[in-house]
Amino acid sequence: MNTSYILDSPFYVFYKKHYCLQCNQLLDVRKVNKVVNSKSLEAKNFDFACGDSSLYGDVKFFYHMFFCIKCEKYFSIKEVKDNERYLRYSKKFIGSSHSEITKKINNDIIKKKVLSYIITFVVMALIFLFLKDIKFL
Ligand SMILES: [Zn+2]
Fold it and tell me: Is pLDDT above 60 for 124?
């Protein structure tokens, strides 16, 4: 069986403190693994890319999750990130309803995506102009 190691946001996971979504206990980082089939529904949550090609069939993924010793419950990195962002926004916009805060978060995610596309485009354009200038192209 193929195996794949995922190292998602190492700085966020190992150097910052995170707390349980339910009881506020300091969370542990645990190494977990899961066999996912490339044709299954949850395959979209895992990266089957492998260099230039991609993995097929059953793949064993090794990755990290947060674990609360009090609740005996695992949380994904995304869950903890989303929760922390939600708490940040609800502090910033005190008095806003749950749906207003969710809307603000989604709007900001879109804004950041658009901005990163623009930056990528500008950088590519500058590189292109630079290479053209020194007659590489
Ligand atoms: Zn807990």
Answer: yes
Burial of 68 (C-beta count, 10 Å sphere; 0-12/13-18/19+): buried
CA of 89 to the centre of ligand 1 (A): 22
Distance CA 65, CA 76 (A): 5
CA of residue 98 to ligand 1 center, whole Å: 22
User: How big is the CA angle at 61 (ends 21 and 66), to the nearest 5 degrees?
Assistant: 15
Using one digit for the tens of pLDDT, what is the confidence trace for 45-90? Answer: 898 987 788 899 999 999 999 999 999 999 999 999 999 999 999 9
Whether 136 shows a pLDDT value over 80: the answer reads no
Residue 24 CA to ligand 1 center (angstroms) comes to 6
Residue 108 CA, ligand 1 centroid: distance in Å = 29
* Cα distance between residue 97 and residue 62, in whole Å: 38
Element (H, E) at 36: strand 28-37
- What residue ranges do the domains of the chain occupy? 1-75, 93-137
134 falls in which pLDDT band (50, 70, 90)?
confident
